[in-house]
Design goal:
- The protein is mostly helical.
- The chain folds into two domains: about 5-70, Orthogonal Bundle (Arc Repressor Mutant, subunit A), CATH 1.10.10.10; about 90-125, no CATH class.
- It has seven helices and two strands, in the order ααααββααα.
- It has a two-stranded antiparallel ribbon.
- A hairpin with a 2-residue loop joins strand 1 and strand 2.
- The longest helix has 16 residues, at about 75-90.
- The mean pLDDT is about 90.
Length: about 130
């Protein structure tokens, strides 16, 4: 299982992986057009090869083009990154992480989200988590 993407990738590699997760697959040219202040085309290709070597991306051939995609699902990457974030910045405390999210003035929690969170907390209590 790959380590957290956050801890193993450079800023550019993270930008590319974010793009691949958002678009599910892309060519080097599409990645180059889709990331901020992109490096040269050859640098993007080299970064994609590095991501393949690290096990985070793979490619398939589509005629003369290589189409790249993440090796793990966005959901799995999200969970891995979240676990890393909670361990690193909140001393492993889910309560501290949730509290920080709820205290953030720029994030809004509507009634449906609040109800869903309450149900998830109750379920976690019943399951002893």
């Amino acid at each position: 299982m790959p380590q957290s993407l956050q801890s193993r990738l450079s800023r550019r590699e993270r930008q590319i992986m974010d793009f691949l997760f958002q678009h599910r697959s892309a060519t080097a040219a599409e990645v180059m057009r889709g990331i901020p202040d992109p490096p040269s085309y050859s640098a993007v290709r080299a970064l994609l090869r590095t991501l393949e070597a690290k096990g985070h991306a793979r490619h398939r051939e589509d005629g003369p083009r290589y189409v790249y995609e993440p090796t793990e699902t966005r959901e799995r990457a999200r969970k891995t990154a979240l676990h890393h974030l909670v361990r690193t910045f909140f001393d492993g405390s889910a309560a501290q992480a949730v509290s920080a999210l709820l205290d953030s003035s720029d994030l809004k929690l509507d009634a449906n989200d609040a109800e869903r969170l309450a149900r998830l907390i109750e379920q976690a209590k019943r399951e002893g988590r």
